[in-house]
Design goal:
Strand content: 25-35%
Helix content: 40-55%
Distance between the termini: 29 Å
Structural class: alpha+beta
Largest sheet: 3 strands, mixed
Order of helices and strands: HEEHHE
Number of strands: 3
Radius of gyration: 12 Å
Strand order of the largest sheet: 1-2-3
Number of helices: 3
CATH class: Alpha Beta
CATH superfamily: Fe-S cluster assembly (FSCA)
Number of domains: 1
């Protein structure tokens, strides 16, 4: 899989979860994909200060990304 194909799959995963974040006044942006297996995202809006954002990141965002791109090993939120 090319880097562009991987980015497309990760963006599709973020598009799938974005409406749930926007319902709570937040959003998410893709920052980078490193070594083809590590995704950096930025939680935005209300998601930044939310006390459950780590849970959202792991149970929602990471699982959705891995569903679209199984080779991803970790998803990291960068402030």
């Amino acid at each position: 899989m090319t880097a562009e194909e991987l980015k497309s799959k990760v963006e599709a995963a973020l598009d799938e979860i974005r409406p749930f974040l926007q319902n709570d006044g937040g959003d998410i942006s893709l920052i980078s994909i490193d070594n083809g297996n590590s995704v950096k995202v930025r939680l935005e809006g209300n998601c930044m200060g939310c006390t459950v954002n780590q849970m959202t990141l792991k149970s929602g965002v990471e699982l959705t990304i891995k569903k679209h791109a199984p080779q991803i090993e970790e998803v990291v939120n960068v402030a």
